Amino acid sequence: MRLLNYLPIVGLIFLWSCNGDQVQTVNKKESYISLKEGEFVDDGQGFFPLILNYQVTIQANDTSIWGAPSMDYYESNYPHNNKDKSLELFREDMRVIKSMGFNTVRLVKITEEHWNKLAQAPAVTTWYKGKYWRAHNFIEAADYPDYIKSVEELLTIAAEEGLKVILLFRMDGENEQLNNHVARSVEYLKEDTNILALDLFNEPLYFDSLDRAKEDVYKISKGWYELVKSKSPNHLITIGLAGIREAFEWDPNLVSADFISFHPYQKFQKGRVENEIYWYGKTLNKPWIIGETSTASDGKLVPYSEQIAFANKVLRQTVGCGGAGFSWWQYKDVSWNEYHSDFMGLVSRTDSNGNGVVKPTADVFRTFDPNIYKDSCILYPNYYNLTYESACTLTGKLIDQNGKPIEHGVVMAWSEWWDKLRHSQTKSDGSFAISADFNLHHWIITAPGFEYKRGGVDYSKIDTINNNLTYDLGEIAIEHLGLSEN
């Protein structure tokens, strides 16, 4: 691939000491990245993380294990079973990412463990000898050094190319063995000052299979936070929430984290992302960033101009609403058999000749100045009715246990068979109106720090106004949980 602007290599120390269970790795500078008054600080200076998500394929043979660019980023001729070539290609990608204006990468899958039921042990999935997938299990101390070295090799290359790193892990609500493995892994990396944050879980809305009360989420996330901090006290901790719809269980104001990473996508609902960002800015009690977002463009079916316009709008809204950083999904296009996910990248897939094309959307990030749009959080006209639908509307008023109206509460409603849904937010007087082009039968409502309530619609009492169905739920009182908001 043609590389863009090369950047000088930063000073770095890379030390290894393998003695049984002891592994020391150091990308060393004077201080760790921290947060002060809601903003990131690096070496005493304010820092706005501009992040690109990057997927890694873990490769292995009989003698070694290493990280490599994702197989999904290549159409063919993937460099199997060659560690030096893999790391060379990874470095090349880091240089391209830096040249596009990014200062951080979020590495996905290299530390994203799972529970291997067959081995009854934590594991990562490796592409073995360029032939088939095989689990690398963590059963005893000897299973760690080579794996940790493979992680640090990528961290070192990223640091040399001027990029900080967020590492994605996978904690578990019930599995203490898996959580202890994550804690052990981060302890090996505790002195790496180039790590911006440890991301402990990705999108519980989709990947936490259990229904949980907010009190349980509070306890679980607090346990994760305390465990990881006990092993790596100086690294920041985040959790990736899918967006506003997490508020019913994984309440962002009750989740224990140094900052929240939100992952809003618009797909079939244009305007959803910038409206959700407005809600984050008005409700969060801790720093937050956009941890993932994007919209698809291949320059043909959807022109690049649409992706460029989206990137500009959500970047500006993030800064204007007080976001502390921004992350785009993802580096390259993939082939997952769905247009929306296939063409979100800033670079096209690498073809058989080793070429990939940088999309013009990259210029948005290369030229972006986060200081320009501060304090310009926009309330868009469709904030309370994203789709402008009106065939069926539920109205009501949200109040607390003392009868006080609750602003920025979240209400969500479904069709009869739970296959379609809409959401909205409450106004300053607690009132809400949630509308759809289908009949709404089930609802749930909450607010940050409060319990949630749910119910159904009695269609024997529904009104018809201008040929549209309307049902008033009246006043709904919810109680503040009284948990210390983290």
UniProtKB/TrEMBL annotation:
Looking at the record, the residues that make up the Glycoside hydrolase family domain are 94-330
Which controlled-vocabulary keywords does the entry list? Carboxypeptidase, Glycosidase, Hydrolase, Protease
Q: Which GO terms describe its biological process?
A: polysaccharide catabolic process
Q: Which Gene3D superfamilies match?
A: Glycosidases
Highest rank taxon of the organism: Bacteria
Would you indicate the residue range of the signal peptide?
A: none
* Molecular function GO labels: carboxypeptidase activity; hydrolase activity, hydrolyzing O-glycosyl compounds
Q: What Pfam family is a match, any one?
A: Cellulase
Similarity annotation: Belongs to the glycosyl hydrolase 5 (cellulase A) family.
Please state what the protein is called: Carboxypeptidase regulatory-like domain-containing protein
Taxonomy of the source species: Bacteria, Pseudomonadati, Bacteroidota, Flavobacteriia, Flavobacteriales
